[in-house]
Amino acid sequence: MGHLSTHVLDTAHGRPAAGMAVTLQRLDSDGAVTLRRLTLDADGRAGGPLLDAAGMTVGCYRLLFEVAPYFRAQGVVLPEPPFIDTVQLDFGIADAAGHYHVPLLVSPWSYSTYRGS
Length: 117
What we know:
Immunoglobulin-like; four-stranded antiparallel β-sheet; four-stranded mixed β-sheet
């Protein structure tokens, strides 16, 4: 059964990004529709799937990771405006029965992502 998950690692501190705010949106012809807002758990995960098998549909999606507020809460002094504020990641789900895992590796100065397993 298909599902969507995420995991965020704070590469500046070498730990999960516990407490980071994340928003999941579906993109359609009318714009972005927010499906979920959540705060990552102690392991830097959503605490379950972002979308379960019943919610998985083919289409375009967006994850918004609130990076600057997370690092400020960790005591990191950032410039104003911060170099990275919100990471906006647009991606597609082509197979509603597939497992889509979207990890984010992030610091105040860089980020990377890929389709995980």
